[in-house]
Design brief:
2 domains, Rv0078-like_C, Tetracycline Repressor, domain 2, mainly alpha, HTH-type_TetR-like_transc_reg, Arc Repressor Mutant, subunit A, Homeodomain-like_sf, TetR family transcriptional regulator
Length: 201
């Protein structure tokens, strides 16, 4: 019972720190956020932060994982009403790209994430996204919707295109102006995978 309570307390402290860090990183940026202020705001010490995340960068990784995972879910929800599997895949990619305009996403995931955590393609949340895309691609290849290409390569390139489009928008001087250009090119690139049996080979 005591062990269970200790586990629950650790999980509660972890959630408190992620929530507080998410707010601080979104408002001030990773570099400017004070860990003393952050931990004090939720009644914890730096020791709790180190125990749960190792260091400030470990806390950023947890926050990025949370926000990036939510991005994938938001993109999936936005694409849920699409008419078929192909339209759903395309809509999901476009919805993910559009999230680059969200101030919290832009600061935490697309600017500070790569700057302090390295290549986003190596993040656990991105690997989860890649698996989901791969399954969709395999299904559509089997149905003849997509050309019979390598599913791993196709999923990797589709995900990379969406992620890098979002990164480009986030670092743009005028994200609103960059968005439609990126969506147009992303759509053209992705559409190259479609199988069109009605057209002469």
């Amino acid at each position: 019972m005591v062990a269970k309570r200790r586990t629950e307390t650790m999980e509660e402290n972890r959630e408190k720190l992620i929530t507080a860090a998410r707010k601080a990183f979104a408002e001030k940026g990773f570099a400017a956020a004070s860990m003393d202020e952050l931990t004090a705001s939720v009644g914890l010490t730096r020791g709790a932060l180190y125990h749960n995340f190792g260091d400030k960068k470990g806390l950023l990784a947890a926050v990025v994982d949370r926000v990036d995972g939510e991005m994938a879910q938001r993109a999936k929800a936005a694409a849920a009403t699409a008419s078929d599997d192909w339209e759903r895949l395309l809509a999901e990619g476009i919805a993910y790209i559009k999230l680059a305009l969200d101030a919290e996403v832009r600061r935490i995931v697309l600017l500070d994430g790569p700057a302090f955590l390295g290549d986003p393609a190596q993040w656990p949340s991105q690997n989860s996204c890649l698996d989901a895309t791969r399954q969709s691609v395999i299904k559509m290849i089997e149905q003849g919707i997509l050309k019979p290409v390598d599913a791993d390569a196709a999923a990797c390139l589709l995900n990379s295109a969406a992620l890098n489009a979002a990164l480009w928008i986030a670092s743009s001087d005028d994200p609103q102006q960059a968005l439609p250009k990126v969506i147009e090119v992303f759509t053209l690139l992705a559409s190259g995978l479609r199988n069109r049996p009605d057209k002469p080979q």
